[in-house]
Structure formats: structure tokens, C-alpha cells
Amino acid sequence: MAILWALVLILLMGFEVDERFFLSMAKAGVMVNLVMWAFNLFPLPPLDGGRVLVGLLPWKQAQWVARIEPYGFFIVMGLVVMGMVSSLWLRPLMSVGYSIINVLMTPLRALFLG
What we know:
Elements: H1 2-14, H2 20-40, H3 48-56, H4 59-66, H5 69-82, H6 84-113
Helix pairs in contact: 1-2, 1-6, 2-6, 3-4
């Protein structure tokens, strides 16, 4: 979805649409989807990143991490409140996400925005 919103943004700018609402909505669409992508990859079992971690770990360690799942939501919320998730996880991953989207959109941006 972030890539689709980036495509919409480039098309709006390419067709010189100056309506601030649509441009802001496309930018927000990119950002919101990148935030959800990065947050969901956090390696704690209630999130998808935790399930990937459990799948990659050896059996004994995977069982230990899987037992955290009932408390994972509270652990994640505690880390969010302390600001650790945003500074140590979200910002770096979102930066990577923006870079990937910029690389993917470069040919389209060159085509429409010259």
C-alpha cells in the first residue's frame, strides 16, 4: 500500500494537481503504511516479526520465545511508552522503507516530473 500511495503522489505531482488535501493524503498514506509495516516487524510473538523470529530460531530457543506471547502485548506497549520502539526500531526501518520506495519510484518520477 505504501508503494501504491507513492505512485498516487507521483501521479498527482506529475499531472500538476495542486490540491493540498490529495497531496497530503498520499503522503500520509505512505507514512501510515510504513509505520504499520515497521511496527508489525518488531520481533515479539504477538506481532508478525515475532512469528518470523520463532520460525528462524532453533527449537529450544523458539519454544522460549513462543512462551512470551501472552505477555507480548504488554511488553510492546511498555517499550512504546518508554520510547524505545520508535527510536531504536521504527525510525531506522522507516528510513529503509522510504529509501526502497524512492529507488522503486525513481524511473516513474523521472518520467512524470522530468
